[in-house]
Structure formats: C-alpha cells, structure tokens
Amino acid sequence: MTALALLGYISAALLVQVALAIAVAILRRASTSRQDAAVDPHRPAGSEAAWAGLRAFRVRRRDYEDDALGQCSFYLEPVDGALLPPYKAGQFLTVQLDLPDAQGTVRPVTRCYSLSDRHDGRAYRVTIKRILPPPDRPELPPGLVSGHFHDHLFPGSIVQLRAPAGIFVLDDEPNVPAVLIAGGIGITPLFAMAREALARKPDRAIHLVYGVRDSRELVFETAVDALRELHPHFHVTIVQSCPLPGEAGGSDCQATGFIDIPLLQRVLAQGRHHFYVCGPPPMMASLVPALRVWTGDGAAVRYEAFGPASLASAEAVTAMPLDRPLAVRFSRSGRTLSWTGEETNLLDFAERHGVEVESGCRSGSCGTCETTIGIGEVRYAQPPSFEVARGRCLLCVGAPAGDLVLEA
C-alpha cells in the first residue's frame, strides 16, 4: 500500500467520524426539544411553537365594544415582532402586571382573560370589562387589573403574557349542533368559538344564547349581526333581564328574564346538542347543573369558570375532614401548618394562613400557582387541564396526600 493510499484511508475514516458526531448532535438537540415541549405546561393545544414563561407584548390598539363604554378590546402584539403561535378559540391568556397594593407596595398581579377572536398571527385580542363595586356595596374597591387596563393601558403600553392555554374549546363534531350560552362578558370565548367554527365549517349549526342586563351591555353586536347574515345556520337569541323601554321583543331582545331550561326548550330544535357555558357565578351555579339533568349527559355540557366562586358553585368539590391532621410545610415562608381537610385545595389553605402564593384562574388551567414539591405527594379531585411536571403541583386544585413540604 502506498503512502498516498494510506493517507486517503485515514482521511476517509476521519470524515466518517465527523459525520457521525454531527448526526449525534442533531439527534440530541431534537430529543431535547421534544422533551422541552413535553414538559411545558403553558403550551396551547395544537401548537408546538408556544413560549414558556412570560413574553412582552405591546398594546397596538384599543376599542370600546359597548354603548356603556365599560367593555374594551385590547389588541396585543409581541414586542419581538415574531409571528404568534396558533391557539384554539375558547382559550385564555394569563396577564402579569406589577401594581401597587392598598399599602402602596408594588407586587406582581396575575389575571386570566379569554381570547375574544379567532387566531390572528400578528396580534391577540382580549376584551376586558371594567369591574365596578357592587351597587349595594359602594365602599368596596373596583377591579384592580380591569381598572388598570381601562385607565392606564393605551397604544404603546407593554404587558407581560403567558402563552394561550385552557381546555374550554369547541369539539370536533361538526354534525352536532353547538349551543353557546353567554352571560355578560362571558361572551368573549364563545364569540371566538363561533368565529372559528364558522370559518372552518360555514354550514355548522350554532345557536348563541346571550344574556345581558340591557342593550347597552351588548358587545360585538355588529360582528354578531354580520355572522348571522352570512351563515343561515347561525342563530342568535338575546335575553335581557332589564330591557330599556321599548326594547322587549325587538332585534336586540328576543326574550326577557334569565337564561334557563324552559327558555332553551323553546328556542332550540329537538335533538342532540353540545352546550358551552360562560358567565357570572349565579348563572353558572344554576344553569350548569340544570343542563346536566336536562341532557342526562354531563359530557355534553362544558363550561368556563374562572375564580373560586364560579368554580365552586358549578362543580362542587366536597371537603373531607381528616381524623389525623397532616403537616404541610411552606419552606420559603418558614411555616408548618395543620391540614385538617376543611379546605378543598392548597391555595385556599395557604391564603387563609397568610402564605402568599401567586394565582390566576384558580381552576387548574393557567399554571400560575404551580409550586415545587419538596417532600410528599399531591392529589387532585379534578385533574388540571395540562400535565404538571414531575415534582411540581398546582395548589388551586391540589390537596395533600400525606405530610407535605412545598417550596412556597
């Protein structure tokens, strides 16, 4: 063998080794990406491009949606200018703001707001109602975050968002009529569902039943009318509890009172339906259980319930007092407390004892209260809407399975 041939063999062997090393590196990177995607709890269904953690968004524009100027849409575009990952209509955004509390101390505050339109790759839209003190309790403070949006966020303002999340989405059974039942600002995820469903399958049967106090509270009125004109299988029933003089029986008020089973029996065609409900706690408390009884099929009734009042009333979780209390230690707070089973979840338990924990939806959907488990296990009476990473838990829907140490 000549020296030249030997040199050729050595060079070929080196090239093979280099190629193998490059292939292994590519495979490892792909595997790591798949693992990262698998444990990202904020990744929306159907998207592999959502981000983890918080991302900066800029207010592009804002528009009032009602005559009373109490409900405003905010169009939010990413500061980095990248295209937005898709989401499913009905999902929500988690917003984090740094706001002063009653003592003037600036703290991070988290809220969840439903996306109020079908996907747009350039901007997300949320429609936020200004929360005022109840008429019978004027001494109570107005909504902190809704007031901040209405009074202080204008084009150019920056907010921090988590990626869209949530399981309150329309089914993939276009042959089953969908009934979207909205109370007040609960119209936001349902309007997005209607827009997306009719864009994908224009002849799908959809009936929107929309309850408000009077016509001044109606939102998306022009857009709803346009959908009704374009799609003969899209039906709308507007229910006003206190219509203005002369409005009852008109185009903006087909029924008066509140949405209930007798009303639905009158306006819906006979046969199988899938129901989607979003509204204030009193409506959720009465209507969701009644729909389940009427349909005889709990799976046919889906709802969105943000906050402890609406969730507890619509889907009660029973407290289970224990014969022997469990020890729950919050390691960062330096407190060990006795879990007696009187609370239904660890978030309520922590707040009652003055342990500060960030929270958002309080229904196992947004991931804001996700906490690291030091020792022990957490059980769920109702499973979270995403797979929680090993060694972590959601306090808002979790309870200790035994003695527990949490990094909070």
| Secondary structure: helix percent | 25-40%
Secondary structural class: alpha/beta
Tell me the span between the first and last alpha carbons.
Answer: 71 Å
Number of helical stretches of at least 4 residues: 8
Shape by Cα distribution = globular
User: Radius of gyration over alpha carbons?
Assistant: 25 Å
* Low-confidence sequence ranges: 24-48, 308-314
Number of strands: 19
Give, in order, the helices and strands: HEEEEEHEEHEHEEHEHEHEEHEEEEE
**What fraction of residues sit in β-strands?**
25-35%
The average pLDDT is: 86
Strand order of the largest sheet: 4-3-6-1-2-5
Mind describing the biggest β-sheet? 6 strands, antiparallel
Your description of this structure?
The chain is of the alpha/beta class and 408 residues long. 26% of the residues lie in helices and 27% in strands. The chain is built from eight helices and 19 strands. It has helices at 3-39, 144-152, 187-200, 221-230, 261-267, 281-295, 308-314, 346-352; strands spanning 55-64, 71-78, 92-100, 106-114, 124-129, 158-165, 178-183, 206-212, 234-240, 255-256, 274-278, 301-304, 326-330, 335-339, 370-375, 378-380, 392-394, 398-400, 404-406. The strands form four sheets. A six-stranded antiparallel sheet has the order 4-3-6-1-2-5, covered by helices on one side. Strands 10-9-8-7-11-12 form a six-stranded parallel sheet, sandwiched between helices. A hairpin with a 6-residue loop joins strand 1 and strand 2. Helix 6 (281-295) runs parallel beside helix 7 (308-314). The longest helix has 37 residues, at 3-39. The chain is globular. The relative contact order is 0.10. The model is unreliable at 24-48 and 308-314 (pLDDT under 50).
